[in-house]
């Protein structure tokens, strides 16, 4: 069972009061993009065994979207952060790198 | 004018805790930038309540103001004064990006009281309701079984629960079932 801290409410929210929103930080490909880029935007997902950045919504709580970084193998949660960013905070990436030596890093 | 009734029309259940419908309660939802200049003063002037901090609840003049999300507050007041207060809030916040609406009939308010009240809540919600983690003055929006709900504690032995009107009967039955005699767990001893 995942327990994530909602960065807006400041409460530890159980997975069952959250709604999963899939992989985070996707770059939208709009009109004018190539078919390959658009297909990748729609369908290509990392699905990593290890560190993963995700979108979650505090559905039964404040209703806000936020980001979470967690490990898909150990279920360790590295941190949660605001939805209003296009990449994870540098401090969080540094902290994950320290904990997971073999990690290829953010993008 | 037609007579106002709550979704449960005053239903009560006596188990090892008492579950009761609070009847018609005035509720005004207020959306806006809580940190904006003049916002707190305007809200205080119109309602008497100070703007609560994150996850908190303030009360004054028999009204309660609860923090719902970073840009939303919910005012509990008398059923008859909700319309007036919504208008007053709108006037006090003129010029700000804010909205106050009377939503008294959108939700149901339930009371849960008794020695095992914390335990009854703990059966239904994933939120931590232990005495160390939760107490009067705090507001928690979470889930009760399968539906969204929020609750706070008016005092140490009582919970006030709000849920959407459409699920009022479901929430009442949930609480009643959890409070059935024989269902005591003794999770929080010492009168909590």
Protein traits:
heterodimer; A: 107 residues; alpha+beta; Folate-binding fold; 4-stranded antiparallel sheet; two-stranded antiparallel sheet; 6 strands; 18% helix; globular; B: 192 residues; Gyrase A, domain 2; Alpha-Beta Plaits; 6-stranded antiparallel sheet; 5-stranded antiparallel sheet; 4 helices; 20% helix; 33% strand
Blueprint of the fold:
The complex is a heterodimer of chains A (107) and B (192).
Chain A: E1 3-5, E2 12-14, E3 19-23, H1 35-43, E4 51-57, E5 65-71, E6 77-82, H2 90-99
Antiparallel strand pairs in A: 1-2, 3-4, 4-5, 5-6
Chain B: E1 12-14, E2 18-21, E3 26-31, H1 39-47, E4 57-60, E5 63-69, E6 72-77, H2 82-92, E7 99-102, E8 107-113, H3 117-124, E9 139-144, E10 147-155, E11 158-164, H4 168-178
Antiparallel strand pairs in B: 1-2, 2-8, 3-6, 3-7, 4-5, 5-6, 8-11, 9-10, 10-11
Helix pairs in contact in B: 1-2
Structure description:
Chain A contains two helices and six strands. Helix content of chain A is 18%, strand content 29%. In chain A, strands 3-4-5-6 form a four-stranded antiparallel beta sheet, with helices on one face. Chain A has a two-stranded antiparallel ribbon with strand order 1-2. Chain B is an alpha+beta fold. Chain B folds into two domains: 12-23 and 106-178, Gyrase A, domain 2 (2-Layer Sandwich); 26-102, Heterotetrameric sarcosine oxidase (Alpha-Beta Plaits), CATH 3.30.70.1520. Chain B has helices at residues 39-47, 82-92, 117-124, 168-178, and strands at residues 12-14, 18-21, 26-31, 57-60, 63-69, 72-77, 99-102, 107-113, 139-144, 147-155, 158-164. Chain B has a six-stranded antiparallel beta sheet with strand order 1-2-8-11-10-9, with helices on one face. In chain B, strands 4-5-6-3-7 form a five-stranded antiparallel beta sheet. The chains are: A alpha+beta (107), B alpha+beta (192). Chain A binds chain B through residues 8-14, 16-17, 59-64, and chain B through 54-55, 68-70, 72, 126-128, 140-143, 148-149.
């Amino acid at each position: 069972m995942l327990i994530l801290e909602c960065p807006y409410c400041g409460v530890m929210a159980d997975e069952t009061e959250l709604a999963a929103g899939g992989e985070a930080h996707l770059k939208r490909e709009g009109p004018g993009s190539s078919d390959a880029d658009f297909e990748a935007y729609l369908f290509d997902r990392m699905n990593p065994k290890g560190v993963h950045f995700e979108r979650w919504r505090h559905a039964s709580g404040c209703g806000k979207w936020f980001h979470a970084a967690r490990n898909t193998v150990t279920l360790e949660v590295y941190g949660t952060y605001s939805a209003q960013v296009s990449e994870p905070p540098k401090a969080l990436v540094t902290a994950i790198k320290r904990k997971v030596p073999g990690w290829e890093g953010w993008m | 004018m037609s007579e106002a009734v709550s979704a449960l029309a005053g239903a009560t259940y006596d188990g090892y805790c008492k579950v009761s419908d609070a009847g018609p309660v005035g509720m005004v939802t207020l959306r806006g930038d809580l940190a904006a200049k003049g916002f707190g003063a305007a809200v205080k002037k119109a309602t008497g309540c100070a703007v609560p901090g994150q996850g908190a609840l303030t009360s004054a003049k028999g009204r309660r103001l609860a923090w719902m999300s970073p840009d939303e507050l919910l005012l509990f007041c008398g059923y008859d004064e909700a319309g007036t207060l919504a208008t007053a809030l709108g006037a006090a916040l003129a010029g700000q990006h804010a909205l106050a609406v009377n939503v008294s009939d959108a939700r149901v308010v339930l009371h849960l009281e008794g020695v095992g009240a914390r335990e009854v809540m703990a059966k239904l919600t994933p939120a931590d309701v232990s005495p160390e983690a939760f107490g009067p003055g705090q507001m928690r929006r979470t889930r009760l079984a399968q539906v969204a709900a929020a609750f706070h504690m008016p005092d140490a032995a009582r919970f006030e629960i709000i849920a959407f009107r459409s699920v009022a009967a479901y929430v009442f039955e949930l609480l009643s079932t959890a409070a059935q005699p024989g269902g005591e767990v003794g999770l929080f001893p010492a009168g909590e």
